[in-house]
Amino acid sequence: MKTRTLGRSGLEVSALGLGCMGLDFGYATKVSKAEGVTLIRQAVDRGVTFFDTAEVYGPFTNEEMVGEALAPVRDRVTIATKFGFNFEDGKQAGLNSRPDNIRAVADASLKRLGVEVIDLFYQHRVDPDVPVEDVAGAVADLIAAGKVRHFGMSEPSAATLRRAHAVQPVAALQNEYSLWTRGPETNGILEACEELGIGFVPYSPLGKGFLTGAMSADTKLGEGDFRAILPRFTPEAMVRNQALVDLLKRIAVEKQATPAQIALAWLLAQKPWIVPIPGTTKLHRLEENLGAAEIELTQSDLTRIETAAAEIQVEGDRYPPNLMATVGR
Fold first, then answer.
1. What is the pLDDT of residues 48-89, one digit of tens each?
2. pLDDT digit string (tens) for 2-45?
3. What does the alpha-carbon distance between residue 79 and residue 120 come to, in Å, rounded to a whole number?
4. Cα distances (angstroms) measured from residue 283 to each of 23, 79, 185, 198
5. Residue 177: active-site member
6. Sign of the torsion formed by the C-alpha atoms of 69, 74, 78 and 83
7. Assign residue 80 a region: left if phi > 0, alpha if psi is -120 to 50, beta otherwise?
8. Are 178 and 263 spatial neighbours (Cβ–Cβ below 8 Å)?
9. What is the mean pLDDT of the chain?
10. Given 80, 200, 202, 219, which is the most exposed site by the fewest CB atoms within 10 A?
11. With DSSP H G I counted as helix, E B as strand and the rest as coil, what are the percentages for the chain, rounded to 5?
């Protein structure tokens, strides 16, 4: 597996990481802890060194799974987790990035992961009730205490990112980014990352499964699948957004690849400090995704994709209004 460095942080990771959320959270299809541990270790065997989790996934169970899976290879991998929520009766209940909570989450995550230091600690969502300078300062204290190595953020505005970075350098930014979610290109985020030397980690790089070509308007989402509340996953939206999948399929045929591989290769071609983290519960999909690192898209390929994509109007927001309100702050 090829490697990349996340900006100027010096944090070198595999060119593709593994987003672990979907193993037991967010989707109708979940795996047992034993099955998740096996898949994560299979990813390690195939060269993946970058693994993403969060306290809210489960909640809490995902970190335990990741920690158990990676314990035998702890010195060879980078583990990222996140803070920033309140919990009541075992369920997520609003935001909380107060410094005392950040410290408490760090200690709890260290225990669940079974590690002595968190490699990358993201603020999961910007808390409007806590100045981001205080958040960055709290993480700086954790870094000084040896509990955290690097500070990350997820879904801030470019202005908020810059304010945080001025207090404690941000090593990596995690935002949604893919061929059908291209806000980072126009909202100043990619520009800020390049200027400040911040690595960029796209989550949902396969459009939560849609860009793989495995979904259609006839797809029935199972009980508990969070995509059921997303505007882009109504049958009508999926019909209209099929044009983007058809574009990926055309390029895939030429490259003897799959739509998912082209979607990931497109992201990898955008910047050398971009590291997507696709997730899966299946070994054959893991291997398919990792194969994207070997696909070379020429400038001509990229221009053709860009020209064709510009003619496609993506239908639907990526989140419903209440969740859209939590991003870009």
1. 999 999 999 999 999 999 999 999 999 999 999 999 999 999
2. 999 999 999 999 999 999 999 999 999 999 999 999 999 999 99
3. 6
4. 12, 20, 32, 31
5. no
6. positive
7. beta
8. yes
9. 97
10. 219
11. 45, 15, 35
